Amino acid sequence: MSNRGKYTPGPAAPAGVRKDGDKWTLILARELRHPPALVWDALTDPKQLSEWAPFDADRNLGTVGPVKLTTVGAPSPHVTDTKVERAEKERVLEFTWGGNLRWELEPLGSGTRLTLWHAIDSQFISWGAAGWHVCFDVLDHLLAGDPLGRLAGPETMKLEGWQRLTGEYAKQFAT
After folding, report:
1. How far apart are alpha carbons 134 and 156 in whole angstroms?
2. Quick one: pLDDT at residue 29?
3. What distance in Å separates the CA atoms of residue 117 and residue 94, rounded to the nearest whole number?
4. Does residue 148 contact residue 7 with C-beta atoms inside 8 Å?
5. Which of the 8 DSSP states describes residue 153?
6. Which position has the higher pLDDT, 113 or 157?
7. For 83-128, how does the pLDDT look when each residue is reduced to its tens digit (9 = 90+)?
8. What's the DSSP call for residue 145?
């Protein structure tokens, strides 16, 4: 049962960007009330990814090696042949999808601090931050047993609050 009808994204969370030459990295962190083992499973298990992530995976991401990721919400199927470069259970997951992605999990009391580093085109940093913000919300609801159902791609941009959220992130990243 989905509770999507009640969902509106909250205010932008603190986020950062790093610039290295002409390369940009978006950095987002979220404190989740769920232990690292549950968060790790949600980051690596294809069935759980299909509930919250903006891509589908053809295998579990918990081991190093090739994987096909399919973008959700694209006008036509967009499959990326990529590779899980690093998979340290309940600690670090690193792979490429629309730029390098590195997820770090840190125990935080009985929960987890989940940090994402996403190499991203500078023109899409605010949208990327807002999109991942929504994904983190959907992930949190999924882990709490209150699934919203995946929100990704153009569907996300139709959410009430999307324009506000992207504007809030844009203000954070203004230099």
Report:
1. 8
2. 96
3. 9
4. yes
5. T
6. 113
7. 999 999 999 999 988 789 999 999 999 999 999 999 998 889 999 9
8. T
DSSP SS3 for 171:
helix
Sign of the Cα torsion 52, 152, 4, 25 reads positive
What are the residues whose beta carbons fall under 8 Å from the beta carbon of 147, sequence distance 6 or more?
A: 1, 2, 3, 51, 138, 141
Contacts of 23 (CB under 8 A, 6+ apart): 119
Name the domain count of the chain. Answer: 1
Tokens standing for 53? 């992530």
Burial class (CB in 10 A: 0-12, 13-18, 19+), 153: middle
* Measured distance CA(34)–CA(68) in Å, rounded: 28
112: in domain: yes
Pick 1 or 27 by higher pLDDT: 27
| Structural domain boundaries enclosing 111 | 14-173
User: Is there a domain that residue 59 lies in?
Assistant: yes
For residue 1, the model assigns a pLDDT of: 45
pTM: 0.92
The token duo for 69 is 């990721």
> How many residues are given for the chain?
175
Q: Quick count: other Cβ atoms within 10 Å of Cβ 158?
A: 9
* Angle between helices 162-173 and 125-143 in degrees, nearest 10: 120
Average pLDDT of the chain is: 92
